[in-house]
Amino acid sequence: MATFISLVNFTQQGLAKIKQSPDRLEISKQIFASVGAELKAFYLVMGRYDAVIISEAPDEETAAKLMLTIGSAGAIRTETLRAWPQDEYKAIIASLPDVGGPQHP
């Protein structure tokens, strides 16, 4: 499964009904599960974004559909990033061709 990090901002509509946010989160978890994905973690954060979601989905298309479905309810806007965990990162780096160039210690 592919890992995704979604940066979330509440819309004005979402803020107006913020007390319903925990219920919307539970519904979102069910939507993820219905397509074979998983909402792994949710964090309320401070700063430029209001929340961060860590999820896994079978592929990018499924992740895009999930964010569009959840976003279409109007309570949040998302920016979703494909993330590669450490083991996948190491495999990607190990598979890079050696193109020469200066060597650094």
What's a concise summary of this model?
This protein has 105 residues and is an alpha+beta fold. Helices cover 38% and strands 30% of the residues. It is elongated, with a radius of gyration of 17 Å.
- The sequence of SSEs as H and E is EHHEEHEH
Largest sheet: 4 strands, antiparallel
User: Order of strands across the widest beta sheet?
Assistant: 2-3-1-4
Distance between the termini: 34 Å
Shape: elongated
CATH superfamily: Lrp/AsnC effector binding domain/regulation of amino acid metabolism (RAM) domain
Structural class: alpha+beta
Predict the CATH topology.
Alpha-Beta Plaits
Helix proportion range = 25-40%
Radius of gyration computed on alpha carbons: 17 Å
Note the beta-strand portion: 25-35%
CATH architecture type: 2-Layer Sandwich
Unreliable spans are: none
Number of domains: 1
Mean pLDDT reading: 94
Number of helices, where a helix is a run of at least 4 consecutive DSSP H or I residues: 4
Oligomer: single chain
Question: Class, according to the CATH hierarchy?
Answer: Alpha Beta
SS elements, strand count: 4
Topology overview:
Blueprint: E1 2-10, H1 12-16, H2 21-34, E2 38-44, E3 51-57, H3 60-71, E4 76-83, H4 86-94
